[in-house]
Amino acid sequence: MTNLQFLRLERDGYVATVFLNRPKQLNALNIGLMDELVATLEELDCDDSVRAMVLTGNEKAFAAGADITEMAGADPTTMLKRDQFAKWDRIRKLKKPLIAAVSGFCLGGGCELAMHCDIMIASETAQFGQPEIKIGVMPGAGGTQRLTRAIGKARAMEMVLTGKFISAQEAYQFGLVNRVVPAEVYLSEAQKLAHEIAAMSPVAVRLAKEAVLKVYESFLLDGLEFERKNFYLLFATEDQKEGMAAFLEKRAPQFKGK
Ligand code: HXC
Q1: Out of 57, 129, 132, 140, which one is annotated catalytic?
Q2: Once rounded to an integer, what is the mean pLDDT over residues 141-170?
């Protein structure tokens, strides 16, 4: 954990804060960052001096999605072999509470990552979205499943099929985030909450989290598998190649349904 390339770590008493740290790419989640993130969170999860964790980005972006440059040329076999999104399940399995402190863009894989957390505190500047459809694919790390559970079918369907963003206030009204706070305090509010939880019995916190997740995750796992397979399948289409190339070339895509 000493040589972090894509993350920054701060400790304060029983609370550890992990910062996603690829600011130039709006914290796009490349494979290296996700490897480092999963390993770091697991290490903190096993560390008795940590009782709660906060995951955050910076004011401009929590994360703008999975890294499109890494996926643009991939075919389904490569995606299946890499199975890079399977390791996200290890975040789902953390025993200690993980609080997302979200400001700015929280999109695609970024929104899916925030939804892996147990509690979400949003800055009033936060914007949430699953814009994968605009680049010829679909959410692949739980977006279709967790978003639907969090905000209901109608709203999730509109977001997933149009790629439209919602504001922090809408995310609050729809039940995606716990609360919206001024931009200056989103991180400190999340850390305050983490300290509050860290003052409780760690054993009770662990078992209570597990129990809440038990109901939340009933039927979730089949859905996640189904979504991931469909996501990989889309890498067989010309539209995926066109959508991602268009993003990287900063032009509008021409989809053909092939
Ligand atoms: C790679 C990305 C990126 C991404 C932004 N960048 N998002 N690179 N992957 N997901 C890069 C840009 O190419 C650019 O690099 C730099 O970050 C700044 O971004 P700009 O577009 O110049 O910023 P802005 O005009 O402010 O627009 C912000 C934005 C836009 C609206 C967030 O960047 C955007 O639409 N990003 C893509 C969002 C998206 O489609 N996410 C879903 C990805 S697919 P340069 O080098 O030009 O400065 C996905 C699949 C999930 O997440 C599957 C399972 C995990």
Answers
A1: 132
A2: 97
Of the residues 20, 21, 26, 135, which should be mutated to test ligand 1's pocket, given the most ligand atoms within 8 Å of the CB?
A: 26
Residues whose CB is less than 8 angstroms from the CB of residue 133 and which lie 6 or more positions away in sequence, other chains included: 160, 161, 162, 163
7-184 folds as 2-enoyl-CoA Hydratase; Chain A, domain 1 (3.90.226)
Query: Any idea where the domains of the chain sit in the sequence?
Result: 7-184
Q: Which residues line ligand 1 (CB under 6 A)?
A: 25-26, 28, 64-69, 85, 105, 107-109, 112, 131-132, 135, 139-141
Q: What is the pTM of this model?
A: 0.96
Q: How far apart are CA 72 and CA 222, in angstroms?
A: 27
Span 177-206, average pLDDT: 98
Q: Is the dihedral of CA 248, 164, 120, 218 positive or negative?
A: negative
Q: Please classify residue 59 by burial: count the beta carbons closer than 10 Å to its beta carbon, then call 0-12 exposed, 13-18 middle and 19+ buried.
A: middle
Let me know: does 253 contact 246? Beta carbons within 8 Å.
yes
Cβ-based neighbour number of residue 9 at 10 Å:
16
- Average confidence (pLDDT) over 53-63: 98
pLDDT at 85 over 90: no
Question: Under a CB-based contact definition with an 8 Å cutoff, are residues 130 and 139 in contact?
Answer: yes
Q: Distance (Å, rounded) from C-alpha 252 to C-alpha 193?
A: 42
Pairing of strands 15-20, 179-181: unpaired
The Cα 96–Cα 52 span in angstroms is 6
